[in-house]
Amino acid sequence: MSSSQTLTSRLKGRSELGVALLLGVAGVLVLVDALALVTPYSQSDPVGPKTLPYIVAGLLFVCAIMLAVNVLRGGQGEAEGGEDVDLSHPADWKTVLPLVGAFVANILLIDWAGWVISGTVLFWGSAWALGSRHYARDGIIAVLLSVLTFYGFYLGLGIPLPAGLLEGIL
Amino acid sequence: MDVFSSLMDGFATALTPMNFLYAVIGVLLGTAVGVLPGLGPAMTVALLLPVTYVLEPTSAFIMFAGIYYGGMYGGSTTSILLNTPGESSSVVTAIEGNKMAKAGRAAQALATAAIGSFVAGTIGTALLAVCAPIVVEFAVSLGAPSYFAIMVLALLAVTAVLGSSRLRGFASLGLGLAIGLIGMDSVTGQRRLTFGQPLLADGLDIVVVAVAIFAVGEALWVAAHLRRNPLQIIPVGRPWMGKEDWKRSWKPWLRGTAYGFPFGALPAGGAEIPTFLSYVTEKRLSKHPEEFGKGAIEGVAGPEAANNAAAAGTMTPLLALGLPTNATAAVMLAAFASYGIQPGPLLFANEGPLVWALIASLFIGNFLLLVINLPLAPMWAKILQLPRPYLYAGILFFATLGAYSVNLQVFDLVLLLALGALGFMMRRFGLPVLPLILGVILGPRIEGQLRRTLQLSAGDPAGLFGEPIAIGVYVIIAIILIWPLLFKLWRRNRPATSLPSPNATRGSEPTDVARGSVSHGSHRADGNSDGDG
After folding, report:
1. What's the gap between Cα B91 and its chain centre?
2. What angle do CA A25, B404, B22 make, to 5 degrees?
3. Which of B238, B265, B359, B524 is the most exposed place for a label (fewest CB within 10 A)?
4. Which of residues 456-495 of B touch A (CB under 8 A)?
5. What is the ipTM of this complex?
6. To 10 degrees, the CA torsion angle through B81, B87, B92, B98?
7. Is residue B503 domain-resident?
8. How many residue pairs bridge chain A and chain B with CB atoms within 8 Å of each other?
9. Does residue B491 lie within any of the structural domains?
10. Can you tell me whether residue A99 is helix, strand or coil?
């Protein structure tokens, strides 16, 4: 048990360097983008569009370096707890990846198949990914939610969600 | 017009049948999301921002205010019945509240939390009604230099004071400010950080950012660590209190209110510090100190009152200065912006009826929470048993819907997923979410004030210090920034007294302190700032 714990904690320590890397990359993006901006000399805007990006890039660089140093010296971010969060087991990618899959399916389907179909896929797929195995009940809830929100948004808010394949039926 | 007559007009507006209905909806919805894990008032208001297209502003804000207060209230129910507080402000309530519930006194714990919330919320709202106009009177004399300084203070204070690691707070702030930069520069019209993508030219919609970070990030994070064995929920009947409970509760309520409101109203506000202070005070003053740790009613009454008074306090800087100090207020600021309303000193002059109706609705919401929720407590406890797959699938479903309905663009859903992944990463590595949201919302405003300031001084940086208030605020900022250094020096001189205090930053490693390194910011707080104390 203890050996696996040290292994995971060591891995965790290393993976947090990815956060520092992300901050650094974000800093580079902000800096490069700011360098490309043109500052027209103007009495009415002495600050110009570059100042804040420079400050932000600087902040990101400083944080990236300090975080890297902090992590290498053994510092660790405290993972967020919560009512439904059990931090005693490692991240469960078998739940997260199908969940992301359902989300991506919705992105791909929404304009072509319409919200009613893509929303159903999203809810049903998410519930399945999260461990629900009441296939029929999940399906009924998913369809009901999608249809109700479609009409709710159309009639109540005046927002036409895409009807897609079901155009003419809905 | 004096405060009282304005407020009466506000009541007249807020009590029209439609607005009253929105108050009821807001309060019920707010309590539900407060009770439910994974959802909070900030996320709910963000998800509901699309309704601002059809609702008139008054009704929308009455509903949002109900959600805000209801969320505070619902959070206490969860922490008493489950002992796993969802929000940091109910951590302290869980300490004694859950012990009371386990000892069969759940009804009394819920009752003192509910009535205490009502008392504190009502006093807090009254203070808001009195204080906000005074702050406004003072604020109208402020120019751009002072606003710039105050906004910087709010950003830095929220980042540096709250949360357990200042370094990670600043990292989060940096990311938020970078996201806020995306889009067209308001003065020169140049596109920043759009990478040639025309859909980014208008900047990221705050609904997309808020929903992604709060809802999608949370759903993904919980999915990765979903509790396999369901938590034990303590069954509860209708809340009630005996004579002895009343006697022991009323003073903590008032003291908690006295702690909560000022902290909520400060730019660095937050409800964590006052709830903790209230707990410590009650423990010291109690005639039954031996009960603390075993379920003392004072330990629920005081912190809960502090929590709700802080919620009312938060409305003061939001309405009077346009300055949000917590996540819900930040999203409400975005809602004001989508109506083209600018909160701040001019709000009371330009939108008087709206503001006073909003304040009146806070009184009404408080009252509704008491009369609706005392009898409904058993029902809220049942909501906690909602199957988790449905809860989190529902969160993703409505998050998608809310983000998509803003522009009807698939591109927003791609952003939603990308920023949701960012939210996941932040939760995984302990980056606080609030600095990011405030950075996105306040960043562009701060830049605007900075440019205005230097425009007035014709480019002379001395213009930043052109107003006495601005100078005073910079002094406070300096104190906040060097505080951990001072604290460390003080600790080194008196190493024996190691009082664990909330949010105090200490060296991340024992060796760190021994070596006397002063690399400030690279600290994480000790576990007992948000453990079971």
Report:
1. 14
2. 120
3. B238
4. 458-459
5. 0.90
6. 10
7. no
8. 259
9. no
10. helix
- Radius of gyration over every alpha carbon of chain A, rounded to an integer in angstroms: 24
pLDDT tens per residue across span B88-137? 677 788 888 888 988 888 889 999 999 999 999 999 999 999 999 999 98
CB < 8 Å to B428, chain A? 77, 79-80, 91
In terms of CA atoms, which chain B residue is nearest residue A74?
Answer: B509
pLDDT tens-digit readout, B205-255:
888 999 999 899 999 999 999 887 767 777 777 788 888 898 999 999 999
Q: Which stretches of B140-216 are DSSP H helices?
A: 144-161, 166-181, 206-211
Specify if B195 maps to a domain: yes
* Cβ contact A119–B401 (<8 Å): yes
State the nearest Cα–Cα gap between A145 and chain B, in angstroms: 9
| Mean pLDDT (chain B, rounded) | 84
Q: What is the DSSP string of B283-326?
A: HHH-S-GGGTTT--THHHHHHHHHHHHHHHHHHHHHHHH----S
pLDDT band per the 50, 70, 90 thresholds, residue B337 = confident
Q: Using the beta-carbon criterion (under 8 Å), do B221 and A67 form an inter-chain contact? A: no
Domain containing B342 equals 3-463
Amino acid identity of B406? V
From first CA to last CA, the distance across chain B in angstroms is: 48
In sequence order, the 6+-apart residues with CB closer than 8 A to the CB of B209 are B179, B419, B437, B440
Using a CB-CB cut-off of 8 Å, the residues of chain B touching A107 are: 410, 413-414, 417
Question: Domains in chain B: how many in total?
Answer: 1
Q: Are B455 and A45 an interchain contact pair (Cβ–Cβ within 8 Å)?
A: yes
Query: Between residues 390 and 429 of chain B, which touch chain A (CB distance below 8 Å)?
Result: 390, 392-394, 396-397, 400-401, 404-405, 408, 410, 413-414, 417, 425, 427-429
Yes or no, beta carbons of A85 and B222 under 8 Å apart: yes
User: How close does chain A come to B424, measured CA to CA in Å?
Assistant: 10
Q: Confirm whether B61 is domain-assigned.
A: yes
